Amino acid sequence: MRLSLANKLSFLYASLIYLFLYMPIAILILYSFNQSKLNAVWTGFTFDWYLKLMQNTEVLEAMKTSLVVALISTIAATMIGTLAAVGMYRYQFRGKTALDAMLYLPIVIPEIVMGISLLALFSQFEIPLGYLTLIAAHITFSIPFVVVVVRARMAGFDRSIEEAAMDLGATPWGTFIKVTVPIIAPGILASALLAFTLSIDDVIISFFVAGPSSSTLPLKIFSMVKFGVSPEINALSTLMLVVTLFLVIIAERIRMRKN
Amino acid sequence: MSGLMVKLQHLVKQFGTQTVVQDLSLDIEKGEFLTLLGPSGCGKTTTLRMIAGFEQPTSGEIMLDGQYVHNLAAYQRDVNTVFQSYALFPHLTAYDNVAFGLRVKKVPKQEIEKRVKDALRLVQLEDYARRKPDQLSGGQRQRIAIARALVNNPKVLLLDEPLGALDQKLRKQMQVELKHLQKQLGITFVFVTHDQEEALTMSDRIGVMNQGFLEQVGTPAEIYERPSTKFVAGFIGETNLLHGTVRTRDHQHLLVECEGVQVKAPSANVAENESVTIAIRPEKSVLSLEPSHNEQLVQLNGRLTERIYCGGSTRTIVTLHSGQTFVALEKTDQLLPAAVGDELFVQWQPNHGVVVTR
Q: Which domain holds residue B320?
């Protein structure tokens, strides 16, 4: 089959776009397997950097912090965000439009502003920086995302299904647990995975609110980079990338399947 | 099977500044099939939702089997609803949908199994117990919704336009089945519909609603033969409405002047010079090419303007000399030999007219 010039050009164009998007990541992954300490010359394949990473106690400690913070903040943000989404879906009240918009607003607030304001708040109330502040901050920036995802799931929800449950004798709480939650579960799960990846990834806000003893993995990477980008960092970044990608793919699949 | 099951007393429902149900009072007997009929937005569904407990009346009282229930939540009332959208739980099988109410009420396991099976048998869907709602057809979903409500042995079953989403044939079939079910179980049905034919064929009594008011309550025959308001006359079936003023009255008849013509109508509780409307059903009138000399007949003349073929019958539209159109029903195989534009006479017995004042 012969391609016309226009087809060739559009193929070239599309290829360049994808190259532009994925080349940096490909290079990072590639060099995480490079024997040389320099990120410029390819000298041979090795798993050394990954092994070295596993022996680095500071990195492991940061990884643990990241996981703990992500887990707790995800659970809390998912619960709060889901209830907010259900409430906003179900009830009509004065000022709803404004309150609804204010739920989403934090998504567009610059992260650095958010980080500084949280730091200001914590120092105002003399809360020592550490796990507590880190978790609180992560819950704060995750909630709007949870609300967005759960609300989208609720959009096609037939209100009379809840009425049917109550009609059959279920209390409002029973209705929520036995009917509403199972139906919107894919949305809740997807939002939880999103919140988890957001928390695992976050640098800027964490930078402001993490204490000396509660450095997260991205913060650790950030501080390691100050001494130059080593293959060890490439390996760590690759691992983070894989984990994040994995979670996002699961979240998307759940969302797609149920819609 | 007698006694009062539902008593609605001066029910009013307002949404903001809009009054959707206005001072509605209605008694529903035990075992009765009562239909609330009206155009969309007339307040019939809101009334049903107030009985179910999904809406709180702005004022007024609801009594269910001798107890006031208007302050109880939906889940505390002994009524069940079949929703227009069926509202089946999409994540549960047909069996679990039907069992939902019994499980909530913590009925013993063996009893649940027996009752659910009985309910599924009642709606002829025993073989579909393991299916999810999205694997069932519209008609099957409908039956599951009915089984899910009936399995709880409610005092009253509320049905909110349950047949609206079905095609014509299935609809007719379900009408018959629902009616049989109701007779067989003896449960009080409150049925909401905008389909007058459905109301006429299924109900023991019909309550016709319009703009929040309950216009008339009566048996299908009463509603059809003796509508008490213009709205009821016009909404139930097809009707010709002649507006006029009462000229004379005696104990048997009224003489009403309609657009210059004297029309005889049955006696009614009206005064002389009062404005009234005479309603005549198309099938009660006869067309004729010649004027009748029978003094007892009401007779108006006009021109044939259109004939609409409706299978066994034909709707013949006559433009009266006053300019008003009049619809008559002819048997298609016995059509009057007249063509469009021909002069003819519309005749009917005076007591086939119904006099309404509002």
A: 238-356
